[in-house]
Amino acid sequence: MNQAVDYGRYQTLNIERRGAQGAVLDVQMKARNGKLPTAGHDGHNELTEIWRDIGHDDSVRVAVLRGEGMGFSGGGDLGLVSDMAEDFEVRTRVWREARDLVYNIINCDKPIVSAMHGPAVGAGLVAGLLADISIASKSARIVDGHTRLGVAAGDHAAIIWPLLCGMAKAKYHLLLCEPVDGETAERIGLVSLAVHEGELLSIAYEVADRLAAGSQTAIRWTKYALNNWLRQAGPTFDASLALEFMGFAGPDVREGVASLRERRAPRFD
Questions:
Q1: What is the pTM of this model?
Q2: How many domains does the chain contain in total?
């Protein structure tokens, strides 16, 4: 039986239905000051919880995730990062959310399509790369910035990057925070497709419509089976996330935050 979902409670996400029956749910991360979506306290929580609601909503067959403004996602709000470094209660709450964000996407039975343009960083990137079909503009700039911040690459990195693009490429980009453009990301297998930015949304919606028109049991059960590869990597992910959040209690993250605020290279001792 369908459970009614109140999407109006989400403040950091624009949520609309597409198609005659509203079977495709368009989820857009809101930009701050017209620039980039960033995950503050509320945004991080809502990006975690939306996948549970989508899973409970029988009227939804597919979700499309995209960003508003100049890019897909701008990473974590520095205020949130500072609060995590200073406050144990905040750190443990965000750790739970970061864990649940990954597992909620993996366990959501509805297929998810991501449409990434411009910068793709942080919690948004977690969802963008864990999406069942990830589509990036050729000029998109994918960056996992954890080690630049002074913490281990937790979040989604250890669970999905080696599986998508291989260990050698994963280590190169994760250890060095080396950006990947959309075209390169497709070439190395990090995303499903790379397209011209002007075609990004139309192609993402076309893919979503095809998924919505298909056999829902066949598509959902195929997703479930394939995601067992990710479930097997759960202990690796859990360890990476624990190490990341241990780093938020250390000295390097303070230098990482200061360097970002001062727009300079970090100086780690």
A1: 0.95
A2: 1
